[in-house]
Amino acid sequence: MNSGAVKGWAGAAAAALSLGLGLWQALRPFPEAGRTPKLAGFLAPLATAPVPRGAAIALAKPASMSTEAALFALFEAAWQRPDLHWTIDAEDRRVAFVVATPGTRLPAGFAEVWHAGGLVLFERAGR
Amino acid sequence: MSGLAAILAALLLGGGVHARLRGACPTLSWSVGVPLWGTLGCALWLGSAAFVGAAWSAGLVIAMGIAGGVLLAPGVGRAPLRRPRLWAVAALALALPQSLRLAANPAFAWDFRYIWGLKARVFAAAGGYDWAWLAWPGHGFAHPDYPPLWPDLLAAPVLSGGDVRIAAALWQGLLALALAAACWWAARDAAPPLRTLAAAVGAWSPVIFAPHYSGNAEPMLAFAAVVALASLRDLARNEPGSVLPLTASVAALALTKNEGVALAVGVVAGAIVTARGRGLITAAGLIPGFVWRAATGLHGIFGEPLNLAPAALAHRFTALATSLADTLHAPAFALLAAVWILALAGLMAREARCVLIALAVWFVATIAMYTAGGHNLHWWLATSLDRVLAAPLPGVLAVVIGVSRARDPVEAEPATILPAS
């Protein structure tokens, strides 16, 4: 077999292998639960929270939540309200609002202005 | 106006530009030219508006479609209709189920939701690139420095009232067809059954269309890579009209992902080595990506920090080898590596040397990024290596299939290579 034929067969084999892998990956069942983040429903009320566009807002981490879980919660909060500037640092001086779960300890100077579902919104006093 | 209408407006722009440029790139088919100019044109249309201070709106998207229609109108009815060929119909029949499957499933992957789709919604809500949002320290997770083409494409349907998850699904369904068409076009020197195989390989590309990556930017990157690598081969063959699609695909690569920038630079390097002055023209395709980098830099938006200390690089490089070996134990990764090895064996033809140069630059840049980056290597490779390796693969395979039947000067015409005795 000459080198041209070897190259041809190598190319055809690569193409067939790629096609097989692509078909297998595309057609195997994917769990329905993996399509929606667990926190999406919990954070959905944020869509109606009375926070003006462009405001800096912190997501206060409940004591029981790991830092990694809090980061994913932050991602989902940003998805729910892409018009706001999000952080997990409630101590940041630029933060005007904090969203938390009931019972979460907040820095001094915040007052509750709204709640829905399991979420409470606080606004920095004297704004 | 729905999200679908915005995608049709982009395609109308692509059709108009293709109709105008057909004379300059005669080998580029409509089925490749329309999505190429449509995706790149849509991103440049919105990007230019953002940079000149014109707010993005549904009206801007409608204007894009009208501009496409105006460009297209003089050529309507002049293109001769050809009877569809059996193998082309077979290729379409193989690609269509994948396209419909993708279009029917709203996107949901993590990177789509928290990087690509999120930024599209931010841009659509702000009426352009929201530099304050991108520069906000808490938003580093969304990789604000990443090139904007894919979020731009997703933002256009959102501006028109569409849902970004459905927009991503529709674009990916379209890109599956575009990939099939591009691979069919790239393998045009092969026998018709092999061209059909190339089209099926494009439509059913592994990894990039896997459900857990749904909505990510890789299908766009893969489509641009097919056009770039095939046009690079065409440049080496001295085919007329290869410079323009090559330059456009370089621009699309560099505007889609950071790996795309590496491949774009590699393609330009391959073009310069192959065709000197004409190759140098393709470097113009890097300009839009450079403008984006300059703009993000001016707003204080930079990528993740790299550790370039020699001792750290040496240590990390050793660790990379170990982590790579571990990662390749997973069956899907091992299969992907096997496909690459076979494809590279098939690519050892003289006219594909420039493609090998492009891939070598991309490969070295990829290794350098993993070496200098700060993430945990095992995690980073496990969550990204398959996507990185898979994106250029349809293009490589289509070129391999295309050159497998083409004449190799060493074997086919020894008299022109060896001195006469």
User: What would the principal axes of the Cα set say about the shape of chain B?
Assistant: globular
CATH domain topology of the largest domain in chain A: D-Maltodextrin-Binding Protein, domain 2
| N→C terminal distance of chain A | 81 Å
N-to-C series of helices and strands of chain B: HHHHHHHHHHHHHHHHHHHH
Note the total helix count of chain A: 3
Radius of gyration of chain B: 21 Å
Oligomer: heterodimer
Number of DSSP helical runs of chain B: 20
- CA radius of gyration of chain A is 24 Å
Quick one: how many beta strands of chain A? 5
Which stretches of chain B of 5+ consecutive residues score pLDDT under 50? 407-421
Describe the structure.
The complex is a heterodimer of chains A (127) and B (421). In chain A, strands 2-1-3-5-4 form a five-stranded mixed beta sheet. The longest helix of chain A has 25 residues, at 3-27. In chain A, strand 1, helix 3 and strand 2 form a beta-alpha-beta unit. Chain A has helices at residues 3-27, 40-43, 67-80; strands spanning 56-59, 85-87, 97-100, 110-116, 119-124. Chain A is an alpha/beta fold. Chain A has two domains: 3-30; 37-124, D-Maltodextrin-Binding Protein, domain 2. Chain A starts with a helix and ends with a strand. Chain A contains three helices and five strands; from the N terminus they run H-H-E-H-E-E-E-E. Chain B has 421 residues and is an all-alpha fold. Chain B has one domain (3-74, 87-408). Helices cover 71% and strands 0% of the residues of chain B. Chain B has helices at residues 3-21, 30-52, 58-72, 86-103, 110-126, 131-135, 149-159, 164-186, 192-203, 218-236, 243-256, 258-281, 287-298, 310-327, 331-346, 353-372, 377-390, 393-404, 409-412, 414-417. In chain B, helix 2 (30-52) crosses helix 11, helix 4 (86-103) packs antiparallel against helix 8 and helix 14 (310-327) crosses helix 17 (377-390). Chain B starts with a helix and ends with a helix. Mean pLDDT of chain B is 92; it is low at 407-421.
